[in-house]
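Students often ask why we bother encoding 3D structure as a string. The short answer is that it lets us treat folding as translation between two languages. Here is a chain of 105 residues written in the first language.
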Amino acid sequence: MPPEPINLLQAVPDAAAEQFVPLLRQDGLLLEQIVSHGKASPEGFWYDQSKPEWVALLRGTARLEFDDGDRPLVAGDALLIPAHCRHRVAECSQDAIWLALHFQA
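And here it is in the second language, the structure alphabet:
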């Protein structure tokens, strides 16, 4: 029986919190869909991850904050965040859906 397709633009039902859906996990690689439901990082919280992360905003809008300034994003934008590059989600739209790839450098 062939595998079932996954629609990356179809959000899971609204929830109180951001939802992280693992799509692929193998050999130090994690690919996940993130459905934000308009949730930003808590005030004063910063990500400082030990692995690089490539993110693509599939739907909606968002603004990522870095030590050296903000990066506004619209659907279709993608960027590579190096390991230990402090960042946070300053804001995102209610319909924001991301694809995130965490990997070993």
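Translate back mentally: The mean pLDDT is 93. Keep this in mind for the problem set.
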